Amino acid sequence: RVSFWFVVTDPSKNHTLPAVEIQSAIRMNRNRINNAFFLNDQTLEFLKIPSTLAPPTDPSMPIWIIIFSVIFCIVIVAVMLLILSGIRQRRRKSKGPSEVDDTEDKCENMITIENGIPCDPLDTKGGHINDAFMTEDERLTPL
């Protein structure tokens, strides 16, 4: 540890300056003194003068506004998704039965071709029985 003591005098009047003025001058120019000795507030200590702290930084926008806006946006997006999904479900319900009937009609009218042979699809509504797989006993048995 290196300590030193200095006295500041006024050259025009040749007398020492009061300690209060010296302390205020050191507080105002502390950064220049630290840089002159290549030190900082932890390594260069002035007696009876507290170390200077960096002023706290104030954000341009308070933190609570940022948090509030993020949560508010999430809630708005969730409400919009719920409304849009409800509208989509109503449209599906209103279109649903007519589309199902149309697809069944299309299936009835279609004749599929497998291995070059036209095949009629099974009509599950009419209850047709495929005679190729029936035995004699089953033909006489009522359904």
Automatic annotation (TrEMBL):
The subcellular location is: Cell membrane
Against InterPro entries, the record matches this protein to: Collectrin (IPR042944), Collectrin_dom (IPR031588)
Describe its membrane topology. Single-pass type I membrane protein
What are the transmembrane regions?
Answer: 63-84
- Pfam families reported in the protein's UniProt record: Collectrin (PF16959)
Predominantly, its location class is membrane
Q: Name one GO biological process term.
A: positive regulation of amino acid transport
Q: Which residues form a coiled coil?
A: none
Q: What is this protein called?
A: Transmembrane protein 27
Native species: Mustela putorius furo
